[in-house]
Design brief:
Elements: E1 2-7, E2 14-19, E3 29-38, H1 41-47, E4 64-72, E5 84-88, E6 97-101, E7 105-107, H2 114-118, H3 121-134, E8 142-145, H4 151-161, E9 166-171, H5 174-183, E10 187-190, H6 197-204, E11 209-214, H7 221-227, E12 228-236, H8 251-255, E13 259-262, H9 270-289, E14 297-302, H10 306-314, E15 321-325
Parallel strand pairs: 8-9, 8-11, 9-10, 11-12, 12-13, 14-15
Antiparallel strand pairs: 1-2, 3-4, 3-6, 3-15, 4-5, 5-7
Helix pairs in contact: 3-4
Length: 327
């Protein structure tokens, strides 16, 4: 089969489509002819040589896909050839074919295209994990979502909306902020215009935020802690702004009874991912069918233009997901 390969991983890496062994489904796996996949920042890190695939996973980039089942393992009972599925991968999405455990594959809702379905798994599963499993979101809470215009951010806004949350977001571009508002954010703050904490306090009061989803880390630590309410929760999904905070005051964590958690998804074991996928499917698939949830797609590239798509993401120009198709 053909797949996107990383040539000389590192700062000067390049990508090219070349030959790679076609995967063979194990007894509980299905082989999927991929119709679309989507970009994630993990792909940019992987091509730098800093985010290797988990042990046993495909070295090919791509953490999600949509397509058609072509072959099933001998113990598979949920799927048959011709079924349209989408799902989360530990790697292997930038290719013509991928294998996925039958319990991690989800049926593509009739109203979604392959491109739309491919834009769901990584972002929505990450957002669901952060808000529901780790953040224990409750109805009518106030939720702050940083990087609101990102793929995970746009998914998180929509999931929080289903809990009738008061949603606050941060982003750095007018288009991203407008998308956040259209999805349901009551307050969308441009971080180029100054600190977010005073603005949050002005609109919602002191110590008003119950749950924060953060991808930035160091620059936002003090403001996050300042905004959180009693029994507030802070969930870290990335540390794009740095990971070392000087002169940390632990007092608010104790006196406000705060919870601080961090998580990645790719490194989780398959049992965890299966349980997460099934919980998410129960929560979300009918919402996608009713258009109550919808993937936000910024742009679609033919996979022959994968280098250009990577540069577009690296420049932080996208609002929502960047999709690859044409495999």
């Amino acid at each position: 089969m053909q797949a996107v390969k990383i040539i000389k991983p590192g700062k000067n890496s390049t990508l090219e489509i070349g030959s790679h062994p076609k995967p063979v489904p194990k007894e509980h796996e299905v082989l999927v002819k991929i119709h679309a996949t989507a970009l994630n920042r993990a792909d940019l890190i992987q091509r730098l040589g800093k985010y290797p695939a988990p042990e046993g996973a495909s070295p090919i980039m791509g953490l999600e896909m949509s397509g058609v089942v072509e072959e099933t393992g001998k113990e598979v009972t949920r799927w048959k050839p011709g079924d349209k599925v989408f799902g989360l991968l530990p790697g292997g999405g930038y290719a013509e074919y991928a294998v996925i455990h039958e319990r991690m594959a989800m049926k593509i809702p009739e109203n979604l295209s392959f491109e739309q379905a491919a834009a769901i798994p990584e972002t929505f599963l990450t957002a669901y994990q952060a808000l529901v499993w780790l953040g224990d979101i409750q109805p009518n809470e106030t939720v702050l979502i940083h990087a609101g215009g990102s793929g995970v951010g746009t998914a998180a806004i929509q999931i929080a909306r289903e809990f009738n949350a008061d949603i606050i977001t941060t982003a750095g571009a007018k288009r991203k902020l407008e998308t956040c508002r259209n999805l349901g954010a009551k307050l969308a703050h441009n971080y180029h215009e100054g600190p977010f904490a005073p603005v949050v306090k002005e609109h919602f009061g002191e110590n008003a935020v119950n749950l924060i989803i953060d991808f930035i880390g160091k620059p936002y630590w003090d403001q996050n802690i300042d905004c959180l309410s009693q029994d507030g929760r802070l969930i870290y999904l990335a540390l794009l702004g740095g990971n070392k905070v000087k002169n940390v005051d632990l007092g608010p964590i104790l006196f406000k009874r705060l919870t601080v958690k961090g998580s990645t998804l790719r490194s989780r074991d398959q049992i965890y991912k299966i349980k997460l996928t099934e919980a998410f499917a129960d929560f979300a698939l009918d919402h996608f069918e009713l258009d109550k949830l919808k993937p936000v797609i910024d742009s679609i590239y033919d996979w022959n233009d994968v280098e250009r798509a990577h540069q577009y993401m690296s420049d932080n120009r996208n609002t929502g997901k960047i999709v690859l198709t044409g495999m």
